[in-house]
Design brief:
heterodimer; A: about 280 residues; alpha/beta; Rossmann fold; 2 domains; 6-stranded mixed sheet; B: about 260 residues; mainly alpha; about 75% helix; flat
């Protein structure tokens, strides 16, 4: 079994209007892990995602799913889309049906399974995303957060191996963000799903992600664990990103106020640990 | 239109098999038109009103208010039937002279106008029963089961879904325009309206593109196949509907 469920090698993509959106990106998505792709607006994240799913065909380079290069035939694309599910940023352009239940069932129906299996998957996905009670509601009566979860359910029901989400937290309130990230984490641990998200919400990255890739102008700039990536504060700031708030605070304490911490910290719990250590040390 | 939609989703008859409701509404509609009796028309209005309000749980006010929608149109057309021109004023119930002739209302004309008026309202009540108790999604499901052309049903579904997206988008744009005084004067109003139309068109185009991409990523292969939820089909409902129509038909045959 390949360690990377999804991999791109030297990926180039040029849009019809001549924009070179991807300029030789190589990266791997580890199986069963949560990967974040960071980058400012126009960094090429969405283009990369559309390549993951075979919606766009690379101008040069390769997309590998489970170690095998993607075939751009009808069957090859069907097989790819069965394994790699894509959730779009705006749920209103993904939800095509006025019935939540029917929309969730659409992707599963295309897999041509038996009706019992189809039904099971639809119900499970709605259960998992917490929208079972909205089954009979029309799509246009849902709140933005509910629409977002319905969109996730529609892809989750297809039981893909990789779930790719473009800005899953954009436009949600803090509670909504926590809920959607929690359900993704659950799906990941319970189903062994690999999750890829793009986000501008830097603070959720150290909390939920195992790997981070940072993109800039169609190229890969940084990669590593959140800990590794967030040591490169200057590079991140140069491309209009920032450190997580906690990491920023720790940086200021260290640099300006002469605190001498044993480790870096990007989340509240990490910071607590580091500060406790510091107190022990200075007693 | 939007209120009809939201009422339909709250109706207690929502779960009922839509084909049954469709059949009941259409058969009763047919009976009402065929019978052509004031008493039958009135009965149909009451039956549909009763089913919608008492069985469906639709507020009586909503049901009555909806009748004002076709009213002005209906009154205008009925008046042209009721009003006649005659040379003999004694034939007319009320009349006014006009250059040697009399314009007024005859007993027969009034009768015919009232009959037509009630017949039209009876027919409308049948359609209101259907639309107030059957959400669009279920109407589409019924059409699908009745083997209506797939393309037509899919298109209807997409149009229905995106009417709401379009309304939401246009409301947002109008609010944004109002916030910048877009509609304060007639000239700026026209300008703003033009901008609204063009930006709506562009957004619609963009959204259709996005929709296609999203469908494709879920394995779209030219058909929007979805899973249907089972409906409650009730024998008593069928029997009641059949009984009502038999009584109406027998009554009108007897009257004829």
């Amino acid at each position: 079994m390949n360690e990377n469920i999804l991999e791109v090698r030297d990926l180039h993509y040029k849009y019809a209007d001549g924009t070179q959106a991807l300029k030789g990106v190589s990266l791997g998505i580890r199986r069963g892990k949560n990967t974040a792709i960071l980058g400012g607006n126009g960094a090429g994240k969405s283009t990369l995602f559309l390549n993951f799913n075979g919606i766009l065909r690379p101008s040069a380079g390769q997309v590998l799913c489970d170690g095998t290069p993607v075939e751009y035939s009808r069957n090859g694309l069907m097989a790819l889309r069965r394994k790699v599910g894509l959730v779009f940023q705006d749920p209103d352009s993904q939800l095509f049906s006025a019935s939540v239940f029917q929309d969730v069932s659409f992707g599963v129906m295309n897999l041509k399974l038996s009706e019992t299996e189809t039904r099971r998957r639809v119900h499970e996905a709605m259960e998992r995303t917490g929208i079972s009670h909205l089954k009979d509601k029309p799509t246009h009566c849902l709140s933005f957060g509910q629409k977002k979860r319905a969109a996730v359910a529609g892809v989750l029901a297809m039981e893909p191996e990789v779930l790719v989400l473009d800005e899953p937290t954009a436009g949600l309130d803090p509670m909504g963000v926590a809920e959607i990230m929690k359900l993704l984490k659950e799906a990941q641990t319970q189903l062994g799903l690999s999750v890829v998200i793009s986000t501008h919400d830097i603070d959720i990255v150290p909390l939920y992600c195992d790997d981070v890739y940072v993109m800039e102008k169609g190229e890969l700039l940084l990669q590593g664990t959140p800990k590794e990536v967030f040591t490169e504060a200057e590079t991140l700031r140069r491309i209009h990103l920032r450190l997580p708030r906690i990491a920023h605070l720790m940086e200021i304490l260290q640099k300006n106020d002469d605190f001498d911490f044993s480790d870096s910290a990007a989340t509240i719990s990490e910071a607590r640990k580091v500060l406790k250590d510091w107190r022990e040390h200075n007693r | 239109m939007i209120s009809i939609d939201s009422v339909a989703y709250m109706s207690k008859l929502k779960k009922m098999e839509p084909r049954q409701k469709l059949a009941f509404a259409l058969v009763t509609l047919g009976t009402c038109i065929w019978a052509d009796y004031v008493i039958v028309s009135v009965a149909v209005i009451f039956i549909m009103g009763f089913t919608t309000v008492c069985r469906g749980g639709v507020p009586l006010r909503t049901f009555l208010r909806l009748f004002t929608v076709p009213m002005s149109f209906l009154l205008l057309s009925v008046i042209t039937i009721a009003v006649n021109v005659s040379e003999l004023p004694e034939l007319l119930l009320i009349s006014i002279p006009l250059s040697g002739k009399w314009i007024g209302v005859t007993r027969h004309g009034l009768h015919e106008a009232a009959g037509l008026f009630l017949k039209a309202l009876g027919a409308v009540s049948c359609l209101y029963f259907l639309s107030l108790n059957t959400p669009m999604v279920d109407v589409l499901a019924a059409l699908r089961k009745l083997k209506a052309p797939k393309l037509l049903v899919e298109l209807m579904g997409l149009v229905y879904r995106f009417i709401f997206v379009l309304l939401e988008t246009s409301n947002t744009i109008i609010t944004a325009q109002n916030a910048r005084l877009g509609y304060t004067r007639l000239s700026t109003g026209y300008h703003a309206l033009g901008m609204l139309a063009s930006s709506l068109f562009i957004r619609t185009y963009k959204r259709s593109d996005e929709l296609y991409t999203a469908l494709e990523s879920r394995g779209y292969d030219g058909e929007l196949n979805v899973l249907e939820e089972p409906y409650d089909s009730s024998l008593t409902g069928c029997a009641a509907a059949a009984a009502v129509n038999t009584v109406l038909i027998l009554a009108s045959i007897y009257l004829k």
